[in-house]
Structure formats: C-alpha cells, structure tokens
Design goal:
The complex is a heterodimer of chains A (about 110) and B (about 130). Helix content of chain A is about 40%, strand content about 35%. Chain A has about 110 residues and is α/β, with parallel strands linked by helices. Helices cover about 40% and strands about 25% of the residues of chain B. Chain B is globular and about 45 Å long. Classes of the chains: A alpha/beta (about 110), B alpha+beta (about 130). At the A-B interface, helix 2 and helix 3 of A face helix 1, helix 2 and helix 3 of B.
C-alpha cells in the first residue's frame, strides 16, 4: 500500500503548526497521534493542525485529535484546527466536535485571535 | 415474471488497516458508477471506512476484510461483515471513537445500522439511492 499521509511540523509564533496532507484513517492516524504526543512531550502545548491538505478523515482521526486536545489542555495550551476541507468539516459537524475544537480558516486568523 | 434486477459486488482484502483505503475506494467507485449523487459519494467513503475500521477492531475476520454491495432496482445496498465484538476498551478515547464511528454511519444514512444477523454474524449495513 502506498503512503497516503504526509506530516510536516513548523513553528509560527506561539504555535507549533502540523501540516497534514492526505487521508487520516485507521492506518495513518497512529503516525499523527505519535507526532502530536511528541510535540506535547517536548514542552509545546499550543498546536495548530493544518487540515487544508486533508481529503478524508474518519472517526479514528477524530479520536487522535481529541486525545491531542486533551494533552495540550493538560499542559496549559490548546489544539486548534486550521482550514479543514469540506469533507472534514462535515465529519466534525455531524459528531458535534465543531463545537469542541477551535476551528479557524487560516493560520493568520488563528494567530490574530479573531 | 419479475422485473427485479440484482447485481452483486464483493471485494475481499487482507484484514489489515492498510486495506481500509482500498476498501473505501472500491465503494466510492462502485457508487459513482451506479450513478449515486455526487454529494453522497464522500458519505459512502466515510461509512465504509468506519465499518471496516470497526471490523478490524473486532476479534477476528476469518474471511478477511469484506465489502459487499448489491444493486436492487434504484438503490445500492452495502454490507460490511464484522467479527465478534471485542471486549470494551478501557480507554475513554477508544470508547468515544467507537461511539462516533456508529454515529457517523447512522447519521449519514437513514437506514445505517450495526446489527447481528439470525446466524449470529455481526454486520454493518446501509444503502444509498442510485440512478
């Protein structure tokens, strides 16, 4: 099977940004979980997950984001979602998690706190 | 004489998380070729991915990971056999993910269900209008 998830990390002000590209499912989600765990274990607690390049996510991905949010909050920060695509937004909305996560259209919007 | 026309489709894959993506691609292409409305195609992918993930979380799939579909008249019926139910996870996140998975299937499709057949086989089913 080919690789269908690309992950990159960068710093942007107070935020650690995780750029995600591809599909988040049972096969790929553990890699995202490990990365988010490593980020908080490294002392960074404000994490922005950029979903602009995510074409598909199911409940396995939601579980990873929920546990990531929990760890960030325990460390005094938060986990935000940036630019989720329409299929991802739909999954978040159906499950009510759009009310749980801080969701922004862009990193600039997140950084400005608007 | 009946006008009832049925077409049956089946994909059988290794019971491995790496094969969830091919399973949902199969379902997506099948739905597309059956004339399922464009706005429902992503929903089919989500439901099949959820059903396959649940199947792989069960305690054994002797026939591998299977996605069955049957076209009857103007609907496409999907069926994804599950293994025996695993013991409830002690992880709150796992329990939540399991609940979210079922919620997605039942909210996306009115007839979506996870049920146990008369022969004791657990299965996820849903259907979608086809052209």
């Amino acid at each position: 099977m080919g690789e269908i998830l690309l992950l990159e990390t960068r710093e942007a002000g107070d935020w650690t940004v995780v750029d995600v590209k591809g599909e988040v499912d049972l096969y790929t989600a553990p890699r995202l979980k490990t990365l988010l765990t490593d980020i908080t274990a490294g002392g960074r607690s404000n994490v922005a997950v950029d979903f602009a390049g995510v074409e598909f996510m199911d409940s396995t991905g939601l579980g990873v984001l929920i546990s990531g949010l929990k760890r960030c909050r325990e460390a005094g920060g938060t986990l935000a979602l940036v630019a989720p695509t329409e299929p991802v937004r739909k999954v978040l909305t159906i499950t009510g998690l759009d009310q749980v996560f801080n969701i922004r259209d862009s990193l600039d919007e997140l950084a400005s706190g608007s | 004489m009946s006008n009832d026309t049925r077409e049956r489709f089946l994909i059988e894959l290794r019971p491995d998380p790496a094969y969830v993506a091919p399973a949902r691609t199969f379902a997506y292409e099948l739905a597309r070729q059956a004339g399922v409305a464009e706005e429902l195609l992503d929903d089919v992918k989500v439901a099949v991915s959820e059903a396959c993930s649940r199947a792989l979380g069960s305690t054994g799939l002797p026939d591998g990971l299977r996605v069955k579909a049957e076209r009857r008249e103007d609907r496409l019926f999907f069926e994804i056999p599950q293994g025996e139910a695993r013991e409830a996870s002690s992880s709150t996140t796992d329990q939540l993910t399991d609940a979210l998975s079922l919620e997605l299937i039942t909210v996306l499709f009115e007839d979506g269900e996870a049920t146990v057949d008369e022969d004791g086989v657990s299965v996820v089913r849903f259907s979608v209008p086809a052209a």
